[in-house]
Amino acid sequence: MLRVMAVVAALAVGATAVWAQNAAGIAARKDAMKAFGGAAKGPGGMAKGDAPFELPKVQASLKTIQETAVKAKGLFPDDTKTGETDALPAAFEKKADLMARFDKLGADAKAAEGAIKDEASFKAEWPKVVSNCGGCHKEYRKPPAAK
C-alpha cells in the first residue's frame, strides 16, 4: 500500500511539473504574440492617419517584429498544444508552414526597415509587413471570443 501511494505521489509530482512547463511555454508564446500586437499598434495608428508619422517609432517596431519572429519559432513545442492557448491544432500539425510564415514576417520587417525613410515609403511598405498577420491568425489562432 505504501509503495502504491509513493508511485501515485511520484506521478502527481511529474504531472505537476509537466503542467507547469506547459503553462510557462504557453505564457511565453502569449507574451510574444502580445509583443507583435504592441509593435504593430503605433505604426498602425500612423498608417490610419490617427497619429503623426514618426520614423524612430516605426523603426523600433520593425526591430521588435524581427526579433519576435525569431523568438516565436521556438514557442510551439508539442507540450504546449493543450492548456489555455489560442493556438489551434493546425499550428502544431503544419509547424513547418507556421515557421516559414514567421521567417517571412521577419524578412518583410527587415526589408521594410531598410526601405522606410519617410511617410510615403512607410505607407508603401508597412502594409507588406502587417499583411502577414491575418493569414496566421486565420489558420493558426482561435477566433476571439464574442463579447
What does this structure look like?
By secondary structure, this protein is mostly helical. The chain has a single domain, classed as Four Helix Bundle (Hemerythrin (Met), subunit A) (Up-down Bundle), CATH 1.20.120. Helix content is 76%, strand content 0%. It has five helices and no strands. The protein has helices at residues 2-48, 55-72, 90-93, 95-115, 119-140. Helix 2 (55-72) packs antiparallel against helix 4. It is elongated. Residues 7-20 have low confidence and may be disordered.
Shape: elongated
User: What order do the helices and strands follow?
Assistant: HHHHH
Q: Poorly predicted ranges (pLDDT <50, ≥5 residues)?
A: 7-20
Residues in helix, %? over 70%
What top-tier CATH class fits best?
A: Mainly Alpha
Label the CATH architecture. Answer: Up-down Bundle
The mean pLDDT is 87
Total E-strand runs: 0
User: Helical stretch count?
Assistant: 5
Work out the count of structural domains.
1
Rg measurement, Å: 20 Å
CATH topology: Four Helix Bundle (Hemerythrin (Met), subunit A)
Beta-strand portion reads under 5%
Largest sheet report: none
Structural class comes to: mainly alpha
Summarize the structure.
This protein has 147 residues and is mostly helical. 76% of the residues lie in helices and 0% in strands.
What's the helix and strand layout?
Layout: H1 2-48, H2 55-72, H3 90-93, H4 95-115, H5 119-140
Helix pairs in contact: 1-2, 1-5, 2-4, 4-5
Q: Which tags fit this structure?
A:
about 150 residues; mainly alpha; 5 helices; about 0% strand
